[in-house]
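Q&A log
Question type: sequence-to-structure
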Amino acid sequence: MRMYGNWRSAAAFRVRIALNLKGIACDETFIDLDAGDQFKPEFLAINPQGAVPAFFDGEGPPITQSLAILDYLEDVHPAVPLLPSDPRDRARARSLAQVVACDTHPLYVPRVRNYLMATYDIPKDRMMGFVRHWFETGLKTLETRLTQEAGTGRYAQGDAISHADLCLVSLWVGTGIFGVETAPYPTVRRIAEDCLAQEAFAKAHPLKQPGAPA
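Response status: OK
Response body:
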């Protein structure tokens, strides 16, 4: 297995965690997003969206989009499950994951920030306010659901790690990078810190990857 990723990519971080938890070896090639390598013809031939991760397992085109990759790994490597067996619990875990991966993370990725700043002449400090707003919206949604809904246990869904936790952690790690206030989200903090204390999460951490700042 092999994957194209980047040290700071929250989406690649999620996939990296799943691979570690399932004990799957994967060679990762890092794309320099700051240099614009994702827009070079050779990478656009791999993923026309110009985004990471792009995941290969044998022959055929790559699998893109982190949640699709997580589902694929769950299907072909079910021995270490990262989704509950009960259909309703499974749906809740996926719903929590999608709060991050579908409704929060896409709003603050570099290509969105750069487009808004260039097109609408938004200064960087105002853009950081935009980013923090969407972080806070996602964190508030998670905190509310995790504290009010039955189903929350040691982790986001029950007492076993699921896709929901991989996504939650990928959002949580970004709070330090963007200076997001985290005190209002103690349940999210509890789950994130529990996960990050585990080797599979720690090894996948963005700042532990090649190209990350010291």
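Response note: The longest helix spans residues 124-148.
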